[in-house]
Amino acid sequence: MALSNLSNWSYAILGFFFMVLVGCNDFDSLGSNKDNDKSKNWIYVELVVETSADTTSFYRYGTIKSRILKKIESDENAKGLFSLSNTRYLSLEDKLMLIEDDEDTDTYFFKIEQVKYIQILKGDPIFTFEESSLSEDCLEFKLSKQKKK
């Protein structure tokens, strides 16, 4: 009897190590998909943020992770937060503006439920807008990127 109990423990320990190894392999394969997680799309997004005192609409351009975009596309009841990076917006004078400055980064977080409209863009709107529709900081940014090419 004692020998059969020892064998059962041996099988249990081997089973545990097998599960750990399989789990590590799954983790590694998820890690290898991290490169895919870095894939981003440029979008134009309209968001409505409701508070008890007010409702505010935001109209932004920026990049979003492709997997988050697919989640929003495949599930209209999706919930959670997403980040919008490389954020741009239109000023009251209809000039495209950069958001990043000494006080703010260009990354914002919004709730998926606040999204009212998304348009997928081919690239950074700085390179598709007419120069007359760009703010000075956008023009400088565009020129600096063109010089690097």
Describe the structure.
The protein has 149 residues and is α+β, with helices and mostly antiparallel strands. It folds into two domains: 2-32; 41-148, no CATH class. The chain has four helices and six strands, in the order H-H-E-E-H-E-E-E-E-H. The chain has helices at residues 2-32, 34-37, 66-74, 136-148, and strands at residues 40-50, 55-65, 81-90, 96-98, 108-111, 115-121. Strands 1, 2, 3, 4, 5 and 6 form a six-stranded antiparallel beta sheet that branches. The longest helix has 31 residues, at 2-32. Residues 16-35 have low confidence and may be disordered.
User: What is the domain total for the residues?
Assistant: 2
Radius of gyration: 24 Å
Strand content: 25-35%
SSE run:
HHEEHEEEEH
Strand segment tally: 6
Largest sheet: 6 strands, antiparallel
Tally of separate helices = 4
Rounded to the nearest angstrom, the distance between the terminal CA atoms is 76 Å
Secondary structural class: alpha+beta
Round the mean pLDDT to the nearest integer and report it. 80
Principal-axes geometry comes out as globular
